[in-house]
Write a structure and sequence with these properties.
- It is a single chain.
- Strands 1, 2, 3, 4, 5, 6, 9, 11 and 13 form a nine-stranded mixed β-sheet that branches. Strands 8-7-10-12 form a four-stranded antiparallel β-sheet, with no helix packed on it.
- The protein is of the alpha+beta class.
- The chain has helices spanning 2-12, 49-56, 58-62, 73-83, 94-113, 127-130, 134-148, 164-172, 176-186, 288-298, 304-308, and strands at 15-20, 24-30, 35-41, 121-126, 154-159, 192-198, 205-213, 216-223, 227-230, 238-244, 249-250, 259-263, 273-277.
- The chain has one domain (2-308).
- A hairpin with a 3-residue loop joins strand 1 and strand 2 (24-30).
- The longest helix is centred in the middle third of the chain and has 20 residues, at 94-113.
- Helices cover 35% and strands 25% of the residues.
């Protein structure tokens, strides 16, 4: 929490830390004026899986799966993870189940704080970061944020795979100056910029995207109902021009003015990716599987064909 407050004071504005571990969940929100946090003991993605299952329920987990689970599949998965917390998800079918648990854990944590305004930056830490990889974790956070904070418009996502927020916070209690130096040099950088564009009619075009860099360019149109990852060169300064189409509202874009997002390479770190969410604020039940499929494909861990085979 020390490093969360420091980051909010020096870099970002409103920051939300989601530390989803094996058997506990810590959520901390910080801004220049306020600091609040909750610790949800006994809930997690490994030894805390059974308790998490009992709290959120089968129905809420099932809606985040691209397939119909067997009757006791989710409860047995949770029980196995509780008994064998160090065993990772071995199959293609297990991984979406783990991510469904992670989505519900993240949503539960965000809802616990009852934030007045959406965060400018969300940091994913713990098992959420180390066990799934930055792309999958970014999509999990995007889905959880959309459910718990439906009025968000633009958020940066940082995946803390090295657990730096916790480590630097502990160091700050011993040597604040050293902690500050380590933070400036090694703090996790933004991996994903998450941007909402809502208001298009079902299935119709929502945003026109023109991506350009020094020696190349790509243009595409993103329809309503998508979670679209905009692929860019990771080692070059890239400009992304987003033009919202009729009826669509998008952060930073005026009525007749498109938005330009500059993705810069900083301190030898790859440029962040852009994740464009054109799904409606409230995902209707009949469209949930469709939405989850878009999320899983956008994570880069699955193809549409793989998901259809589950």
């Amino acid at each position: 929490m020390i490093s969360t407050r420091y980051a909010a004071d020096t870099d970002t504005g409103g920051l939300l830390l989601l530390d989803i571990g094996a058997s506990s969940i810590v959520v901390c929100a910080a801004s220049r004026e306020n600091l609040s946090y909750k610790v949800l003991g006994g809930l997690g993605l490994a030894s805390g899986s059974t308790a998490l299952y009992e709290q959120v329920g089968r129905k809420n987990l099932r809606r985040w799966l691209p397939f119909e689970p067997h009757r006791d599949e989710l409860s047995m998965w949770a029980m196995n993870r509780t008994i064998q917390p160090t065993v990772e998800s071995p199959t293609l079918r297990d991984a979406p189940i783990e991510q469904a648990f992670a989505r519900k854990a993240a949503r539960l944590a965000i809802a616990e704080l009852a934030l007045d305004t959406p965060p400018d930056v969300v940091v994913g830490s713990g098992s959420l970061a180390r066990g799934m990889g930055s792309r999958v974790a970014s999509v999990v956070i995007a889905d959880a944020l959309s459910q718990a904070q439906p009025n968000w418009q633009r958020t940066e996502i940082v995946i803390d795979t090295a657990n730096a927020y916790v480590a630097v916070g502990a160091l700050a209690t011993i040597d604040p100056d050293l902690a500050g130096n380590v933070w400036e040099r090694d703090r996790p950088r933004t991996q994903t910029i998450l941007l909402a564009a809502r208001g298009a009619k079902r299935g119709e075009p929502a945003v026109s995207v023109a991506t350009s860099w020094e020696d190349g360019s790509v243009e595409l149109t993103v329809p309503e109902g998508q979670l679209q990852r905009i692929h860019v060169p990771i080692d070059k300064v890239t400009s992304v021009l987003l033009t919202h189409l009729s009826g669509v509202k998008m952060h930073g874009a005026g009525r007749k003015r498109p938005q330009t997002v500059a993705l810069e390479v900083r301190d030898d770190s790859p440029s962040p990716e852009l994740l464009l969410d054109t799904r409606p604020v409230a995902i209707r039940a009949e469209r949930c599987v469709e939405s989850v499929t878009h999320s899983l494909v956008s994570s880069g861990a699955y193809s549409a064909a793989e998901l259809q085979s589950l």
